[in-house]
Amino acid sequence: MAIKVGINGYGTIGKRVADAVAMQKDMKLVGVTAHSYSFNTEAAKQKGYKIFAVSDESENELKANGIKPDGNFQNLLDEVDVIVDAAPRKIGKENIGAFYKPNKIKAIVQGGEKHETTGVSFVAQCNYDKAVNKDFVRVVSCNTTGLCRTLDAVNKKYGITSVHATMIRRGADPWDIYHGPINAIVPVLEMPSHHGPDVQSVLHDVEIFTTALSVPSTLMHLHSVIADIKKKPNVDDVIEMFRSTTRVRVVRNAEHLRSTAEIMEFARDMGRLRGDMPEICVWQEAVGLTSNAHNKLLYMQAVHQESDVIPENIDCIRAMMGFKDGLKSIKMTNETFGIK
Question: Is 280 a residue whose pLDDT tops 80?
Answer without folding.
Answer: yes
